[in-house]
Design a protein that fits this description.
The protein has helices spanning about 5-15, 20-40, 45-60, 105-110, 155-160, 180-185, 220-230, 265, 275-290, 315-330, 350-360, 360-375, 380-405, 425-430, 440-445, 470-485, and strands at about 40-45, 75, 115-120, 165-170, 185-190, 210-215, 260, 290-295, 305, 310, 405-410, 445-455, 460-465. It is an alpha/beta fold and about 500 residues long. It has a domain at about 5-255: Alpha-Beta Complex (Amidase signature (AS) enzymes). The longest helix has 25 residues, at about 380-405. Bound molecules: glutamine.
Length: about 500
């Protein structure tokens, strides 16, 4: 069962070949078998999922019409609020938090008749690129358990890669869906800012956060996206634009399409040879499919070398803006309304300080301090305002490029998955994981990571296709055409 795609599972369920209870049971067996090696789950939703499976079995037997995710097990990153199910953000400050309401995407999954089977580990409050910043545990990469699964949605990516769920949701503020998808050999989509409601997703950097689906292939991804892309008045940045028929658009031909190759992403020592080779191969596949390649320029996303060290405007700009937003967003975790309260405080101020000091991890504290600094009077103009301007320049570069080409062809990550512990002591190096992914969040556009090869160490490699706003269907049809010619998306780690 667990080897099947989400669509196959749904079709078998709808045809009455298997009950939802059998499906969900099979996945919990798989989880029992492989999760002890990987440590993906923060919470397993077993009882609830079983009850829901029975309810869906009854619904089907009554002959009622079923949703597009009928009977499909789904896992969620643990920053997506689930009514009655713990939502921790992998932080000690929210270790006991049980939300009184569902996120919009959870309501959508419910309507689509999916079954939520668990909540997955992540970097605390989605800050990180390896899931090592989790305040709860370390998740491992299913392809090599000495390596990180990427982050911050590392648990969700590892769950799909290890076939503990056919579909997952993560969140992507600067790459947190695409980068772990690339490290784990699955697909990850960051929708256009505003395509999916953020209502009920614990906010990190609100002007960039976006929920994204993770799946094994383009078809499953299209089904998942059509379930969660829906207007929602509770998120004022969520669009009421009509939702395209994503599954219906999958077969669109690529003949005559053009892909832009940003010279700044390829003419750099920041890109490893293995990733470069994987992308060259993918480019040949696309050329055979009739795609024309053309060089484009994204000058403000360029990657510089200074004294042998890599730097990037986009990464610098992202870290000023995201820390500023995080500093404000995380103010609510004060031990009063939200968050665990310190037990040995002397007075009110001491209570705030101790509750936050004891329960937030190092990276979260670092970002709150940085964010407070860049917004403080005297520094606001020099840091925050300047970064906001650079962001505009980055977005304009993309808009200009999309006048010349349909999509942009790029790497997702500079290297394949790195070793656990390799970068924990060097936050600046870890921040560079976002060099190819953060520009798209700053611009508010959409992007998709697709497995496209494997390194000498048998680690997956990801290709990133980026597109203009509201062009998810084109990203998905481009991925679908590629997956018909290749089999990278069907490969599975030995566990
Ligand atoms: N690496 C980025 C960060 O640490 C990823 C954030 C994200 O996309 N949630 O902020």
């Amino acid at each position: 069962m667990y080897m099947k795609t989400a669509k196959d599972i749904r079709d078998m369920f709808l045809a009455g070949k298997v009950s939802c209870r059998q499906i969900v049971d099979a996945y919990f067996k798989r989880i029992e078998e492989v999760d002890p090696q990987l440590e993906v789950f923060v919470t397993l939703n077993r009882e609830d999922a079983m009850q829901r499976a029975d309810a869906l079995d009854e619904k089907r037997s009554r002959g009622e019409s079923m949703g597009c995710l009928a009977g499909i097990p789904v896992v969620l990153k643990d920053n997506i609020c689930t009514k009655g199910i713990k939502t921790t953000c992998s932080s000690r400050i929210l270790e006991d938090f049980v939300p009184p309401y569902d996120a919009h995407v959870v309501e959508c999954l419910d309507k689509a008749d999916a079954v939520i089977i668990g909540k997955t580990n992540m970097d605390e409050f989605a800050m990180g690129s390896s899931t090592e910043n989790s305040g709860l545990k370390i998740t491992r990469n299913p392809w090599d358990t000495d390596r990180v699964p990427g982050g911050s949605s590392g648990g969700s990516a590892a769950a799909v890669a290890a076939r503990m769920a056919p579909l997952a949701l993560g969140s992507d503020t600067a790459g947190s869906v695409r980068q772990p998808a690339a490290f784990c050999g699955i697909m990850g989509l960051k929708p256009t800012y505003g395509r999916v409601s953020r209502y009920g997703v614990v906010a990190f950097a609100s002007s960039m956060d976006q929920i994204g689906p993770m799946a094994m292939n383009a078809e499953d991804m299209a089904i998942m996206l059509s379930a969660i892309a829906a207007p929602d008045s509770r998120d004022s940045t969520c669009t009421d634009k009509e939702v395209p028929d994503y599954p219906g658009a999958l077969e669109e031909s690529l003949e005559g399409l053009s892909f832009g190759v940003p010279e700044e992403f390829f003419n750099t020592d920041g890109l490893s040879d293995e990733i470069r080779d994987g992308l060259d191969e993918a480019r040949r596949v696309y050329e055979r499919l009739g795609v024309k390649f053309k060089e484009v320029s994204l000058p403000h996303s360029r990657i510089d070398m200074e004294d042998g060290r890599i730097s990037s405007f986009a990464v610098a700009c992202y870290y000023v803006l995201c820390t500023a937003e995080a500093g404000s967003n995380l103010a609510r975790f004060d031990g009063v309304r939200y968050g665990n309260r310190s037990q040995d405080a002397l007075d009110m101020v001491d209570m705030y300080c101790k509750s936050r000091g004891e329960n937030f991890g190092d990276e979260v504290r670092r970002r709150i301090m940085l964010g407070t600094h860049v917004l403080s009077s005297g520094y606001y103009d020099a840091y925050y305002l300047k970064a906001a301007r650079v962001r505009r320049l980055i977005a304009e570069d993309f808009a200009r490029a999309y006048k010349e080409v349909d999509l942009i062809f790029a790497p997702t990550t500079p290297t394949p998955a790195f070793k656990i512990g390799e970068k924990v002591d060097n936050p600046l190096e870890l921040y560079l994981s976002d060099i190819f992914t953060s520009p798209c969040n700053l611009a508010g556009d959409c992007a998709l990571s697709i497995p496209c090869g494997s390194s000498g160490d048998n680690l997956p490699i990801g290709l990133q296709l980026m597109g203009p706003k509201w062009q998810e269907q084109r990203l998905l049809s481009a991925a679908n055409a590629y997956q018909k010619e290749t089999d990278w998306h069907t490969r599975m780690p030995d566990l």
